[in-house]
C-alpha cells in the first residue's frame, strides 16, 4: 500500500491537483466490537506530527510548510507511524496532527483489518490539522463538535495576557461508547501550541473551559469520561521528568480543580500511574542545536484524563519510548501514551 498516495495527489506542471479531504464521523448501522480480548481495552494517545499525504495548500504540507518537505518524505513518515501502531496494537488510538480520513484509511491498510476510521473535520484552516481515531470498537454516537466560544483571559488567569478575545476549540471531537455495558464519553482535543506564550496560554485556558462544560454535562448524565489529546501544557500536580510547571490552569480546568465547574467533578491524569522519569511525551530541540540532545528537550504535554472508575480499571500504563528523537528523524516528535483497561 506504499503507493496509495498517488491516488490522492498528482503532479501537473510542478503543481498539485488535490482531492478534498472528507470527514468520516458517521457510525455504521451495525456496530462492531473487533477486540481480540473483549475484557480488555487498550487506548493510545498519539500526536503523529503532520501525518499528511494529500497536499494542503494552506499549510504547504507536504512541502515547505511542515516537517516533510515532499511526498516521498511524507510517505516514509506514514510507514514509520504504521510500524509503531502495528507494534502497539491499540484497540483505540487517537491521532493529533492528522490531515483527514484519507490518511486514516491509508494507515489502516497497513494494519490487520480490524480498525474503523473516524474523524470530525475541525476549523484549523491555517494548518489543516485534525484529530481522528482508528478503533476496533465502533462508537454509538456520530462524532460531533461544540462550536461554543469562551472569553479570555478567564477570571483568575495567571498567563499574564492583558488583551482580550474569544476562542473555540478548533481541533476536537466528542463521541460515546458502550463497552461491556459501561457508558463512556470520549473527548479528544488538540489545543493551541506554545506553553510559555502569554496570549496562547490565555487561549488554551478558554479552550479548556469550553470542553469543561462538555465534561460536566456528561458527568451529570452518569457517563464515565476519557479526555485525551495534545493539550500543549503541563500538569501542575503530576510533574513531568523535568518538573515543568504550567503558567496556565488548562489541566486544572479539565480535571475539575479550577474553572467554572471547579469542585463539581474530578478527573485523574493517568500520568500519576507512571514513574516521573518516564513522564515525557514530546521532543523539542530546545537549543536549536542538532548536535546536542539532553533531557531538557523533553516534556509531557500529551495527556489522558479519566474518571475514578476508569482509573481503578487501569491494569497497565506507559509512554512508549521505543525510538530516538533527532534532527532528520521520520518518527513523530511525540511519543504514544498508553493505558490498558480491564473492563468486564
From TrEMBL:
Family annotation (SUPFAM superfamilies): DNase I-like
Limits of the Endonuclease/exonuclease/phosphatase domain: 75-308
Pfam families xrefs: Exo_endo_phos
Example GO molecular function: catalytic activity
InterPro entries in alphabetical order: Endo/exonu/phosph_ase_sf (IPR036691), Endo/exonuclease/phosphatase (IPR005135)
Protein name: Endonuclease/exonuclease/phosphatase domain-containing protein
Species, as recorded: viral metagenome
Amino acid at each position: 500500500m506504499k503507493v496509495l498516495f498517488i491516488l490522492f495527489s498528482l503532479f501537473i506542471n510542478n503543481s498539485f491537483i488535490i482531492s478534498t479531504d472528507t470527514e468520516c464521523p458517521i457510525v455504521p448501522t451495525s456496530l462492531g466490537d473487533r477486540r481480540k480480548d473483549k475484557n480488555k481495552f487498550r487506548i493510545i494517545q498519539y500526536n503523529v506530527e503532520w501525518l499528511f499525504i494529500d497536499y494542503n495548500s494552506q499549510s504547504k504540507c507536504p512541502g515547505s510548510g511542515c516537517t516533510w518537505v515532499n511526498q516521498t518524505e511524507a510517505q516514509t513518515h506514514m510507514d514509520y507511524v504504521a510500524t509503531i501502531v502495528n507494534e502497539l496494537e491499540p484497540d483505540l488510538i487517537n491521532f493529533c496532527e492528522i490531515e483527514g480520513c484519507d490518511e486514516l484509511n491509508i494507515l489502516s491498510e497497513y494494519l490487520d483489518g480490524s480498525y474503523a476510521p473516524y474523524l470530525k473535520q475541525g476549523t484549523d484552516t491555517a494548518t489543516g490539522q485534525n484529530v481522528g481515531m482508528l478503533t476496533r470498537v465502533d462508537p454509538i454516537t456520530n462524532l460531533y463538535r461544540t462550536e461554543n466560544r469562551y472569553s479570555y483571559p478567564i477570571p483568575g488567569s495567571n498567563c499574564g495576557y492583558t488583551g482580550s478575545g474569544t476562542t473555540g476549540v478548533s481541533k476536537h471531537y466528542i463521541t460515546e461508547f458502550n463497552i461491556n455495558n459501561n457508558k463512556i464519553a470520549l473527548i479528544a482535543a488538540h489545543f493551541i501550541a506554545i506553553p510559555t506564550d502569554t496570549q496562547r496560554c490565555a487561549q488554551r485556558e478558554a479552550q479548556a473551559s469550553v470542553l469543561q462544560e462538555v465534561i460536566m454535562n456528561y458527568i451529570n448524565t452518569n457517563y464515565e469520561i476519557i479526555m485525551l489529546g495534545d493539550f500543549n501544557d503541563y500538569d501542575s500536580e503530576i510533574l513531568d521528568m523535568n518538573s515543568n510547571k504550567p503558567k496556565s490552569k488548562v489541566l486544572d480546568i479539565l480535571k475539575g480543580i479550577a474553572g467554572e465547574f471547579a469542585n463539581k467533578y474530578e478527573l485523574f491524569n493517568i500520568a500519576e500511574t507512571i514513574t516521573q522519569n518516564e513522564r515525557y511525551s514530546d521532543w523539542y530541540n530546545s537549543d536549536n542545536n542538532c548536535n546536542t540532545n539532553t533531557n531538557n528537550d523533553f516534556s509531557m504535554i500529551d495527556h489522558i484524563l479519566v474518571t475514578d472508575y476508569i482509573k481503578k480499571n487501569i491494569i497497565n500504563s506507559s509512554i512508549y519510548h521505543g525510538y530516538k528523537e533527532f534532527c532528520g528523524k521520520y518518527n513523530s516528535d511525540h511519543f504514544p501514551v498508553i493505558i490498558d483497561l480491564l473492563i468486564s
